[in-house]
Design brief:
Aminopeptidase; 4 helices; GNAT family N-acetyltransferase; globular; 8 strands; about 30% helix; alpha+beta; about 30% strand; about 170 residues; 8-stranded mixed β-sheet
């Protein structure tokens, strides 16, 4: 039996559940010994802002249970303007931030599914480039980027810390 998943815009009533998923991700990064997301970011205000600005998307199953969260942003990311390296394109881009997967219950492959599901949204809005970054020690996300054809472009800095930056140019 094939599982039915869809990506939908997050609503105000999803806010607490999304924050719970992000707290799971924060705890997981801490357990893995990472400094990523251990400085008070992200937080409930970030989630509220994502929802208000319509950046927030949730991956849901056939029962509308939330399996994962992502912020899909079409505004320029200031940190991406100062890359130590080179982006693949100079065109307008979508930025992916705060991708987190519900661990209760954990469904394998949700992060990959979300990364694939944002591509048609980007194309429909006329964005043929997706940029994303992660911590050097986030092995799970680094594997997803590699599997989906994202190209390492260099380093960007968030809150004083270097992050690995990737881009994928989508076919028109």
């Amino acid at each position: 039996m094939t599982e039915i998943r869809r990506l939908r815009r997050a609503q105000e009533e999803d806010k607490d559940f999304i924050w719970g998923i992000l707290q799971q991700a924060i705890a997981k990064r801490r357990e893995e010994g990472s400094e990523q997301w251990q400085d008070g970011y992200p937080n409930p205000d970030v989630v509220a802002n994502d929802i208000e600005k319509k950046y927030a998307y949730v991956c849901v199953d056939e029962h509308d249970d939330i399996l994962g969260y992502v912020a899909l942003i079409f505004d320029k990311e200031p940190a991406y303007e100062q890359i130590e390296g080179h982006w693949l394109s100079d065109s307008a881009y979508a930025g992916i931030h705060r991708l987190a997967v519900n661990r209760e219950p954990y469904v394998k492959g949700i992060a990959t599914w979300i990364m694939q599901a944002v591509e048609p949204i980007c194309k429909d809005l006329g964005y043929y480039s997706i940029r994303v970054d992660t911590n050097f020690d986030n092995a799970g996300m680094l594997r997803v980027f590699e599997k989906l054809g994202y190209v390492y472009c260099g380093e960007v800095y968030f809150r004083g810390a270097a992050r690995r930056a990737f881009e994928k140019v989508l076919a028109r």
